[in-house]
Inverse folding.
């Protein structure tokens, strides 16, 4: 059952002060394609990702990666690469030292650190304090940490936020090439136009509940070809 | 190796500990100040019947705050920066992360503490006036007082780490550590002297660092050292439990 599904979410629920941020959410994320995780701001996307990564505990339900909860993974960074926080590193440490610490946690050689630094174009700034990085460089460092363990599953929260057009293009080709290599890629966004260009499948949520789990083409077809209208119809019609 | 263990957590934490220059300099400068304070206290010792060893070790009033604050920042820096979530995705068993941090930083603080008290003692005895007795490390009681005081600085560092694991926010944790180590003994020591032998700072000054026994501290220095060690042990166990339980 899980053989063809890298990530399985079933009945996932998380309440904060009696209010459900994630409410009985179930979906599968498949390998070999980019899956867009779409919903308005505050719809529970980030919380769902934090639950999948074991950073928060669900009140009910499960999120399994190849059949295992995140906390039971044998080599977490070699299995799942993730960026779910806006800030992911300490300002006083160099980008390279940050990655070396994560490599040490995963028994990866220093050579692998230099490879990912090169992949994200940070080699020149690698030995500088990360606190001096521009927003784009900071995002590249976060992404380098996610790619470090060459993981089969990538979970990225709003990776296109704050990137300039060249950065968006770069990120989009990276996500597509990761999927083309057979990896599983889950990317959240609140911008339908970005996801229309990036994702093969779309999981749409609002108020922590699943509204649609379908292909981008199918979703657009429901509203006369406009993905944007389809998204707005779905999210505005959802129960408050 | 088929899965990560404590060894990988240690490797990660020692990499982290070595790569924050500001923290390293805070510790180094703080230890230099601690030793300087002690040497000054030795120079100012004039009582021929006093305890010059204990006097010169008084620099730990400063030193305990330095290791305590650095210990707290060693973990709150991760929560304040967002790094904690990345650490816990690398090593999801958070109590393993805290245990590794405690081992790595405990070793750093122990080396820093012992070097500081030995330098203090050598510098302090060199400037002692001719009118006061000159202690020697060849005396078992003097050696014990010096080494235990160095160990005390390691324990206050771990008190800081445990407090940081519980409180998570740097400013609040630092205030708590400073208040708990420094202010609380002043208040309680004045209110009830018999409680003093349970408080780390008063134990350090009146028992661990003392060569001549001090009234009210009749217990063996080894027992008093064990009492001080209960503080970081309880704080780290509570901190580990909280890390595991609370959302990151």
């Amino acid at each position: 059952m899980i053989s063809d599904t890298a990530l399985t979410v079933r009945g996932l629920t998380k309440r904060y002060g009696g209010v459900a941020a994630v409410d009985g959410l179930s979906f599968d994320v498949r390998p070999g394609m980019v899956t867009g995780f779409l919903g308005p701001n505050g719809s529970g996307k980030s919380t769902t990702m934090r639950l999948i990564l074991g950073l928060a505990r669900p009140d009910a339900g499960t999120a399994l990666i190849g059949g295992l909860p995140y906390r039971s993974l044998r080599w977490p960074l070699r299995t799942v690469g993730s960026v779910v926080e806006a800030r992911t590193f300490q300002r006083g440490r160099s980008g390279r030292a940050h990655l070396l610490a994560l490599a040490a946690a995963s028994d990866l050689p220093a050579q692998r650190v230099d490879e990912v630094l090169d992949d994200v174009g940070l080699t020149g700034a690698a030995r500088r304090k990360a606190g001096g990085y521009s927003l784009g460089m900071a995002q590249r460092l976060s992404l380098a940490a996610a790619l470090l363990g060459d993981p089969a599953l990538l979970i990225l929260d709003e990776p296109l936020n704050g990137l300039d057009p060249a950065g968006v293009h770069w990120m989009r080709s990276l996500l597509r090439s990761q999927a083309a290599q057979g990896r599983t890629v889950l990317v959240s966004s609140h911008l339908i136009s970005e996801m229309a260009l990036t994702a093969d499948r779309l999981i749409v949520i609002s108020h922590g509940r699943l509204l649609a789990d379908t292909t981008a083409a199918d979703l657009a077809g429901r509203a006369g070809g406009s993905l944007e209208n389809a998204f707005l119809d779905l999210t505005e019609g959802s129960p408050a | 190796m088929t899965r990560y263990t404590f060894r990988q957590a240690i490797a990660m934490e020692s990499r982290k500990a070595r790569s924050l220059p500001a923290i390293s300099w805070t510790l180094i400068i703080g230890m230099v100040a601690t030793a300087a304070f002690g040497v000054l206290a030795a120079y100012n010792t004039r009582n021929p019947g006093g305890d010059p060893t204990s006097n010169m070790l008084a620099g730990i009033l400063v030193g305990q705050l330095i290791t305590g604050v650095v210990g707290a920042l060693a973990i709150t820096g991760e929560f304040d920066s967002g790094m904690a979530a990345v650490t816990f995705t690398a090593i999801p068993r958070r109590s393993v992360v805290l245990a590794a941090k405690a081992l790595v930083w405990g070793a750093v603080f122990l080396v820093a503490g012992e070097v500081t008290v030995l330098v203090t003692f050598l510098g302090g005895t060199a400037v002692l006036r001719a009118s006061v007795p000159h202690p020697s490390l060849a005396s078992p009681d003097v050696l014990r007082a010096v080494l235990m005081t160095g160990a005390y600085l390691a324990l206050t560092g771990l008190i800081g780490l445990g407090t940081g694991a519980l409180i998570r926010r740097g400013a609040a944790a630092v205030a708590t550590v400073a208040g708990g180590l420094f202010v609380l003994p002043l208040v309680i020591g004045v209110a009830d002297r018999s409680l003093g032998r349970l408080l780390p700072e008063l134990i350090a000054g009146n028992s661990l660092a003392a060569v001549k026994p001090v009234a009210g501290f009749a217990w063996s220095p080894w027992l008093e050292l064990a009492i001080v060690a209960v503080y970081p042990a309880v704080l780290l166990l509570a901190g580990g439990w909280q890390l595991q339980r609370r959302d990151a």
Observations:
- Chain B is about 75% helix and 0% strand.
- Chain B has a mean pLDDT of 95.
- The CA atoms of residues 93 and 143 of chain B lie 40 Å apart.
